[in-house]
Amino acid sequence: MILAGCAVRFMFYGTEFIPKLNEGALYVRATLPNSVNLEESTRLAEEMKKKIRGFEEVKFVLNQVGRPNDGTDPTGFFNIEFHIQLHPEKQWKRSVKKEELVEEMRKSLDVYPGIVLGFSQPIQDNVEEYVAGVKSSLVVKIYGNNLFELEKYADQVANSIRTVKGIEDLNVYRNIGLPELRIQLHDHKMSRYGIDIADAQAVIEMAIGGRAATKFYEDERMFDVRLRFDKPYRDNEEKIGEMMIPAEDGKKIPLKEIATISYITGPAFIYREGSSRYIAVGFSIQGRDLGSTIAEAKDKVAKEVKIPVKNKMTWAGEFESKERASQQLSVIVPAVLLLVLFLLYFNFGTIKDTLIAASTIPFAFIGGFVSLWITQTVFGISAGIGFIILFGVNTINSIILIAVMKENMRRMDLKEAISSGVHSRIRPIVMIALMGSIGLLPAALSTGMGSEVQKPLAIMIVGGLLICMILSLTVLPQIFYFSYRRRRPLNSSQHKRSQASGFIKIKATKDPGNPL
Hints:
Layout: H1 2-11, E1 25-31, H2 38-53, E2 58-65, E3 79-86, H3 98-109, E4 116-120, H4 122-132, E5 138-143, H5 147-161, E6 167-173, E7 176-185, H6 187-193, H7 197-209, E8 211-218, E9 221-227, H8 237-241, E10 244-246, E11 252-254, E12 259-267, E13 271-273, E14 276-285, H9 290-304, E15 312-317, H10 318-348, H11 351-358, H12 361-375, H13 381-408, H14 414-424, H15 426-445, H16 454-484, H17 492-510
Helix pairs in contact: 1-12, 5-9, 10-11, 10-13, 11-13, 12-13, 12-16, 13-14, 13-16, 14-16, 15-16
């Protein structure tokens, strides 16, 4: 019954990849509209920096607008990043946790319309970006060719998962959004006026973008001297349309007579993966486990969003790493169990005793899961490794008990053999449990920086070994009894002869050098 209850509860228990390390710092990313200019982005960065420095837990703040200096991370002025170094938590004057501090900062900065915030940590942010491919820990990728259609599907996905409990920092990494000037030259109009396309393109390039006309020397350095129309003559469509283009007969024709000039919203970024375009919907999870949150989000997207067959949607990032690790564990755990069964059979030599010993393997599952449940620890990869350790260590208890009970059965009744065997092996079984539990107890109770990864493993081993010890001393003897209850008991004469022969054997081996 206990095993069935744990199995049912485990099916609905929260899961994650690995716990998040406390790095003692925060990394905040603010994503502005793609069309923002440098001056506005810099102004907002300074305002947000002052708000962040207003928290007394903050030691210093470094901010960055646009891409890094080395150019390894291409992005635009719409990207603002803050490295926030915190004082050690022991020095905080307020009794707040780091999660509460993040929520306070989020509310303080969430007053600017059109800005999407993302909270992470410096090392965590780099790892997440490497895994997900975008600046987010979790991401939904929609693949296709038409960028405008991809944005429509991405908005549908974002609106669908916005109400899922635990999802924060929702952001659509838009491909479209950069205003651009489009000048479409018409061949039939240029031929009517006798204008060569190369001449028209040269004038447009020089007037709007600038073109090098000569060079200027200063000592040993050389600079280009560029010609360009003054801003009042190129700041709108009408002024650009008045540019004069030379014809073959020497006349000059306005650009608007041979071209269509318009401002359109074009692509700012084109994300690619595996030779396919995609758009990303990034988000993070706060206050809830990864597994159940993604399961609910997937269910809502499947019901509310209809993606055409020509497009493909995948869930990537930390969830992808968790699924990959879970698949590996689904292969490793059965392999370990088979190896344990083989070693048990190699030790006992009979299938019955092997199955009796194997019946203690569920004790490891019960002990480990109850330990996680009591401490409210989410099941992750490190906890899964703890299960493997418990499987191996717990079988030692079964080997010790079964061996002594079978030895006692040669000279005692079944019940007496079981009772005597359990009492004689309490000390070694308790020592096995205490050795592992006490050794990992500091790791299970630690709260220092970096303890988050080892803690689930330690909790599972500490609590699991103690629970396995109790079950081995109470349940395993019952299993042994029901397995051998049909064995014919010894009668009194056989029992005495067995004791006598056992006594003589013991005396003979006690001092082999004694001739008597």
